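Justification of computing resources. Each target in the renewal requires a structure prediction run like the one illustrated here; the chain below, 523 residues long, is used simply to show the kind of job we budget for.
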Amino acid sequence: MRFPQIRLPKSALRLAVAFVAIAAPTTVSLADDRPSLTIAMPNLNRGSYGGYDASNYASRIVHNLYDNVIKRDWLSKPDGTGTDLVPGLAVSWTRTAPTLWELKIRHGVKFHDGSAMTAEDVAFTLSPERRKIRPHGLGAPIIRAEAIDADTVVVETEAPDAAFEHRLATRIGKVVPKAVYTELGHPAFAADPIGTGPYYIAEKSEDTVVLKAFDDYWGGRPPLSTITYKAVPEVSARIVGLVAGEFDIVTSIPPQQAELIDREDGFHTQASLLENVQLIMFPNDKREGDAAAQTTNKLIRQAIVHATDRALLTERLWHGLNSVPEGFSFPEYGQYHIPQTPRSFDIAKAKELLKQAGYDGAPIRIAMVGGYYVNMDRSVQAMLQMWNEVGLNVELSIQENWAQMNPRTRWDGFPISANFNFPDPAAPMWAYWGAEQGPHRRGRMWNPPARFLELGKALESSLVAAERKAAFAEMLEIWEEEVPAMLLYRPVEIYGVRDDLKWQNYGMYWMDFRDYNVSFIGR
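Resulting structure tokens:
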């Protein structure tokens, strides 16, 4: 999806630009004659660059620091939503038994510290040993990863895994150096990472991260000398900076403000409906000492959904660029997609459910990180009015960062997002909320019913499409009944880009600046 160019008379924005100190052009000739880029986004998620990390801001940096064992070719579709799998740090992969895979490892690959990547590094990256240091649900099916020689890694899964190849194209397949990772541990490594990607972190400060070209990159000389990411929280400042020449790309533009870019000569917007869903989480696996227990009652959770006009949010805030999700089933799942009818906006139903729940007007504590998600602040304000109309007594708490949200079990609800990770129903519903190492199960957001866990194991371990689809269908029914979270909408990521820069955004937050995806008109 791409926003059309609109040429209108110059706006007040141009007048504002006149008062901005014009920075030197960011595309400059350095000693090696390669251009550089400067990118402005609301947040840098500093220190969260450890490969496993995939927040919607850190991932824009992380994707350029690492390579995957198996690579998803986003450009196998021109709009950046392709799902084809191609060789990455594994040149080939073969299923040798229902639960065994053999990976042939690429030679001549170096880490940013100059050390050679080995089969041992690949095996460690995928291994349970690594997940003891930093758990992650996407890797849970893997019970063994072993380098049997310099060329070969054997990976064993607990059961047959239909999503194995796609799994290795996600964050768990971003290869890290075993020796450094085990010595530092995840937090220290994530703050000062080493990968095999085309760029490495050269500088960091409170509001800036600078990547520099890694000229020993196995995939060829990177096309950019440096990439500078700037934290610029205010949308208006990002837009003005783009038009002033201070930035080459700006991210996270709300639909209401995209026109300000499109009507400026020399700039355009481009956008993607993301493989991500934003939602309101209802922590309900409460323990002794946890506060804010209203949403432990599933009738109250159901009432909140019926009290929320999600279609109005997509219409007014997203200009119809997205829609209310049917549930945790998406068209990207292909043969496994199961059409559903989402819970309706029904005030009378919401009030009836609250009556059944015996809700007495006790405060429902909702918290959020202000300004983190595009349009979420406005969505929450609109929802507060909707919830008040049915008699819900909601108290909103605005936090400055995610650390202030902890422990998250002290809230009745909060906005968060979930990446699809790969085009299969094993993610994200099961991988996040059901898998033993899933972040939301570990974080006590939900204690799933035994039947949900049984079905999730069947979904994860069967290679028979009909069996997998049947298990997924019943899991969706349980989710709809239990409502661990309310799905709001799939976000649309809108970028502002210079016209002379050719770069394709993907159907995810990743920003890819390898040689096949960035060039300059006239250079």
